Amino acid sequence: MNKLLFICLLLCSSLAAAQQDSKTEEEKYDEIMMGLKALLIKIDNLENRIDRLERLVQPLTTHLSIDGIQRNNRAKLAKWRRLEVNQSMDEVIDLVGLPLEKQEISSGEVTEIWEYEFDGKISFRDDKVYRWRFPKNIRD
Q: 66: Cβ–Cβ under 8 A, 6 or more apart, which residues?
């Protein structure tokens, strides 16, 4: 009988321990879930904050980028406006840079054409500027 009582007590204590362990696991699970919910709330708050900040900054960046493009175009236009008939090829390179492509012409008044981005072109006669066309993206 003592053996039976001992086995019964052992079984009861192991059941109680099992219940205690499952409760501890459940508590751990609840803690993890509460932590995840808190993180999700923080993430949601940060996303909302980022959205508000982006809405505030977007008009400024658009203005700055347009302003930067306009300044860049004005600088390019100023360089192209300094082109003159009879300038040397070296002077042209100093002003507007190297062309994207060069075409040598064997007949007619023009002996070479330099092509730039946005359809800008400079024509040469005997290695001197003869005429040019401003790139299409350059405006006042």
A: none
Contact 88, 76 (CB under 8 A): no
What was the pLDDT predicted at 84?
Answer: 96
> Helix, strand, or coil here: 130?
strand
For 126, residues 6+ apart whose C-beta sits below 8 A from its C-beta are: 111
Give, in degrees to the nearest 5, the angle at Cα 123 between 117 and 128.
125
Give residue 22's Cα distance to chain centre. Answer: 51
Question: Which one, of 85, 84, 81, 118, lies nearest residue 99 by Cα?
Answer: 118
10-residue mean pLDDT series, the chain (140 residues) = 57 55 78 80 82 71 62 85 96 95 88 92 95 81
pTM of the model: 0.51
In angstroms, the CA 72 to CA 97 distance is 14
